[in-house]
Amino acid sequence: xxxxxxxxxxxxxxxxxxxxxxxxxxxxxxxxxxxxxxxxxxxxxxxxxxxxxxxxxxxxxxxxxxxxxxxxxxxxxxxxxxxxxxxxxxxxxxxxxxxxxxxxxxxxxxxxxxxxxxxxxxxxxxxxxxxxxxxxxxxxxxxxxxxxxxxxxxxxxxxxxxxxxxxxxxxxxxxxxxxxxxxxxxxxxxxxxxxxxxxxxxxxxxxxxxxxxxxxxxxxxxxxxxxxxxxxxxxxxxxxxxxxxxxxxxxxxxxxxxxxxxxxxxxxxxxxxxxxxxxxxxxxxxxxxxxxxxxxxxxxxxxxxxxxxxxxxxxxxxxxxxxxxxxxxxxxxxxxxxxxxxxxxxxxxxxxxxxxxxxxxxxxxxxxxxxxxxxxxxxxxxxxxxxxxxxxxxxxxxxxxxxxxxxxxxxxxxxxxxxxxxxxxxxxxxxxxxxxxxxx
Length: 440
Known about the structure:
By secondary structure, the protein is mainly α.
């Protein structure tokens, strides 16, 4: 019989993978949806942002709720709600009903926070980066393998079915049904934590005062900012690349454009465990990747990968300006690699730094990080830019202040107190120490 920690990791990963498939299921069908509702290119950028608008607040809320009530309860409720509104969006006849139902269905994006908390309740600190990387990596692949590769092939342009003759309506309907079924299954088979002591420590730390205190520590602030420029970028590009390859290079075939876009999503998803594993490895072996931050091994790896993201975005603009779509696709793949490695590194640090508040901190980091997914598409589609390639370089420039913030907090003298020091918000006992009763 499968070990309980692996069973719960599998459940969390299935939830997250399906959640991201639903969250990004809008992207491959933008052309058909735009035609039906009469949307311009700029309006498509707005709709793409609207698809993530509910997620930041949802993540901030679901984190402490998951700490308090346990992942099986919050996962089940989230999946059922998401599934119901995904089904509603399949039957929408007006742009207003469609937009509202998709915004609520986009709460599928908060499954990430639930899963991060659930996995952290079952794995030891020295394996957290790897376990969270597996969860987040395979889960993130829902955007690429699920939304961009699988859905356009099952529900292609010539799709006709028993309920719908429109492909995107069928895709939204059936993924919604699967979410409802999985939500019910999660409540039946999921277990909140490895031990009751660990569950109790997590539950007792969930309060509004705690959320405010934890969320304003330097460690949470800097990881949130780093997540804006990595996961926020991933969300933005997952929702934008299909349109980019179609409009900037004249690639009108929905399947081919979606496949090109999927190369980024697959890299950003499936390679994420490497980022977490290397973070675990450098921490265990005390191997210096970037000696500027002496003794802060996870921070060294994280900062190196954040720099890689900025450089890869500049390369993305240069590749697009060549006019060769294949060069642009390869460049997009490397942007995905940078996102994957960075995100794996960031979420190796989150539960390691905040062991009894992993859901709360995941909600803060994940919620704030998602803001990038709302803002960046507006830059990519900005009408004042000379072409659709320049937006990547503009976004890269906006990330430089975040690198500066990271370089300050990652200094050893500041990093060692990053879970206690922060903005002037009242709290209680220090929160950086490991939980003595939570692991065996």
